[in-house]
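Help!! Second protein's tokens look totally different from the first
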Amino acid sequence: MTIIVCASRLSVPSTLNGDFAVRIDPRLQMPENVAAQIHDAVGSMSSLPGPFMASAFAEPLTVEMRDGDLWVRAATGDEVTELLTSGGYEDDDLDWPGDLADATGHVITWQEYSGGEVCMEPGCRVWSGEVILQSGKGVTGPFYVHEAAARAWAFSTALKLSRAEVFEAQVVPYTMARSAAPGLLRLGDPESRRLMRFWESPLRSWGVPYPVRLPA
């Protein structure tokens, strides 16, 4: 089984000096064979890995100390962002909060108000998770440059709710003007609402949302 952990944690001094029970969050509903692989992998680690990805399980996971035991639960979107962020873009002309968003290869045309300047610039890709409730309402997550982070947000948020409340979790792809992306990533929903009020928005959905499979 392949395990990917956060590189920044590899140099952390060992915190697993004693004997700790490894427990799997029951909300994950892992098959017994998968849970056994995850259990053995976590138990063999010399330090707390935090967020990690395992080939044996579809969604990112994380390990935390809780009541003297090691608990494996679904990783959040922010934890997966930490796991995947590589950095090293000091020469970029925009102040990104983390990794750059991937270019789409398309040009975005946007206009803040009718009669205002028409702007054209390269587009980039961002992602957001959503949880659709049985009531018809929904919960929308932050925007991420990593698709896996948006998936993790949708998956972990759905698991925190009663299964009877949740209709579906999904990931929504967006494209947007590159210059507006850092602000959106930092400010989230208030900024997305502001951009959506433009005469021609620099932020728009791009493709069909796809479902994130939840435990039965």
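Here's the second one for comparison:
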Amino acid sequence: MPLIGPVLGSLINTQFAAQGFTGVKQFQLATALGNGIIFHIQFVNFYQGTAIGVGTGAGVGTGFINPGTVAAPLVTSQIILGLTAQGYTGVKMPQLAAAIGNAFSAHIITGIVQTTTTPVAVGSGFGKILGVTGPGCGAQIFSMMAAQGFTGTKMLQLAQGVGLGIANIMNAAVVQTVIAGGGFPPTPASSPEFGKLI
């Protein structure tokens, strides 16, 4: 399933409720966060990895982010670090970070990485998602917050803190792919692999 901003927003909203948040603008905040995070990732990400297999030809890979590299506690801790670095503190900040982290962890592993490789025709690959930046993600979240009517004095710090956390976890995530294609002869090969998380 491709990554979808409103789906992440809905997951964040559910996690907000699980963490005890009941504000009247809770749904709008969740929607802004979900759309901001996913829009940034979709527009700027690219995959770069190494393919290992057989064949001299071309292969097409399909992969996913390894769930262990984007586990909810890891995501939450990165968001807490990002929020703290931006001066966004408070007694409910860890619960806010946990809600966003739990939802992001559940949704990001549903994203599909599509790749191409030459000359490996059949095999597997591993690599990283690149291009996601904290300031860029934060700016996208902030613009989505503004679109939802959020104008509070701490909104920029919230957006930038979450953006930093998401960028840090995406930079640490590992992708695994399976490559299928056609090629001859079936000799061992390795090559760069390129693609995109959708």
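Reply: Different proteins will give different token patterns, so don't panic. The beta strands are 46-54, 57-65, 113-117, 122-130, 175-183, 188-197.
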